[in-house]
Amino acid sequence: MENYRFDGGPQVLHLGRRVEIPVPLPTLMYRGDIMLALRYVSGELIKANQLARDDSNSKVEHNDRKPVGGRLEVWVQNCRNLAGSGSGASPYVKGYLINPDPDSRATRSSRVKQKSAIVKGDMNPNFNSILAFENISLRDLKGRSLELTVWDHVKIGRNDFLGGVRLNVGTAATPAWTLVATSR
């Protein structure tokens, strides 16, 4: 700064207009259909059913029982038109209940994993499986995402990814649509 000359006076530079540079979004590929249904069973209902099943000779007092969280049930009925590696595919569904908060303790450890049975040799499998995520409160469920992925079971090597979907309740105060532009 010792050698800089300040005698030039003030200089005003005008900035140009802000220009948005469109970033192409990855195109979504159709990889098949998955049919499923979701149901949340409250902890109070689960506890009431447990109390009804308990016999009268139980040594534990009903008031001493811990509160029970709810249960999220995902009924995976079937998949159709899976894009796979041939007719000999053996698909199955993996379900994760993910805590997407990066600040939470070890996001990986806050996952809850469930898996359906493997249906051998069918690209339109009927799973008819219920993936049950236990001890989840409704409040905790609002902050999590349900990720369902379909995989081709391979005996030797890595399983092949066939498709997937991520569902969540959402946190917006009002519903809003996001415009997705397709690249041309």
From TrEMBL:
Molecular function via GO: neurexin family protein binding
Annotated GO biological process: exocytosis
GO cellular component term of the entry, any:
plasma membrane
Per its UniProt record, what Gene3D superfamilies does this chain match?
C2 domain
SUPFAM superfamilies (UniProt xref):
C2 domain (Calcium/lipid-binding domain, CaLB) (SSF49562)
Family matches, as Pfam families: C2
Q: Where does the chain cross the membrane?
A: none
Q: Which residues form the C2 domain?
A: 52-182
Q: What is this protein called?
A: C2 domain-containing protein
* Organism field: Macrostomum lignano
InterPro entries annotated for this entry? Answer: C2_dom (IPR000008), C2_domain_sf (IPR035892)
